[in-house]
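Practice problem: predict the structure.
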Amino acid sequence: MKHGYLTVYLSLSLTLILSLVLTLVEGARLNTIRMESECVADIGMNSVLAEFHRELLEQYDLLFVDISYGTAYPSVGKTAEHLRNYMQKNFTAEEKGFISARDWLSLSVEKSVLSEYSIASDGNGYVMKRQVLDYMKTNTPAGMLSGLTGQVSENISLFKELGVDTRDVEAERNNIQAQIDSIELPKVDDENQELKEVPLDNPADKINAFRVGGVLKLVLKDFSAISREVVHTEDYISHRAMYKGTGLSSELQMPVGLIDNLLFDEYIFQKCGRYGKDLDKSLLKYQIEYILGGKESDIENLEKVAKQLLAWREVANVIYILSDEVKCAEARALALTLTAVLQVPALIEPVKYSILFAWAYIESLCDVKSLLNGGRVPIIKTAADWKTDIDSVANFTGTIPENDNGQSGQDYGDYLRIMLFLQSDDIKKMRLMDIMEMDIRKTPGNMYFRMDACFDSFSADISISSAFGYHIDIRKRYGYD
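Answer:
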């Protein structure tokens, strides 16, 4: 009978011990499930980010995942499926040995959904710009940034001070012409004893006739050498309806301010071609001119930039020439050689000023020619910088005089930097993404590439279940931040 007591005691003890062991095992399994689910979710989301677009990184140093995966149909559902597959493969790795720990967990992914994702074009390209600035701040030496900031700021300040980008020289010239037109010209008897108006023969009129044509044909020696590349702008992001994400994360600051904008412009100069420095990889050869002009062809964009240069140079040259007493006297002397002016003194001043404005226009054409040929032109000139003389006004035939390109002042790139700085930030961002799409679509397997199908950060809602009845919901955010 004493032996029976021991058997009952052992039975009761083993029951308690077994219950404790099973409870510990179940607790260990639950904690292991939670830990492994978290780890596998991390692995899966990192694996999704590892699928960054190689050409975008190679050409533009940007890290984005293309949710179209080389197809014409972008969808975050594809990315969610990639995430689910990566996680499932880690849950169901090949078993090794007689007993595998996987048997004790038996996990599978029920659902993975991308609840938030930051597309490159969100905020009119702010997501793309944020990455650009991160790249530039990491790779731009402090000394270079300081020098660039000082140079551009100085040029912009001088522009603003002189009103180069705001003064309406055309209106002033039209006002002078209106004064001339309001004065009645003298009349004399012709050979038939009939009164005939004495022609004014103002040399400025002949020069002004060239204003209606294109600038490039006047300033380029070999117009046929210009790139003839053409694109259909409606195919690119700035002209089409965009695929949209959920935007920037609330804790991320929008990139704004002078330094940020100058860094962004410098990135454009590093990654994009322009006239005189085109890139082999590019579709449009004058990419910075496209960002400024937005036209479909290289010729149109270069023409638009040349016209802007001409307008700026004309304002600056008018400012200078009206302050130069010698040139004003030469213009007055030329006006007095005109018969009608001699007979009608009221014409002297308006004709003199029309000649001065025409002279400034010829000088401006020389400036644009010099800039496009790699020369330098100071924003505001001195007598030593002036290239043309009064004879170029009296004898102008449409041919721009040959002059040295100049070694002082700003070059073509400096003027482009000023244009970029004054350009709308949203326009710059969207047209830069146009350029990215143009170039990357030239590469194999990327004919459908689009920037509004690229994300750099995302949040995922993941549901995981176990064959043992457990269920875990995970929400994580990952990105290249």
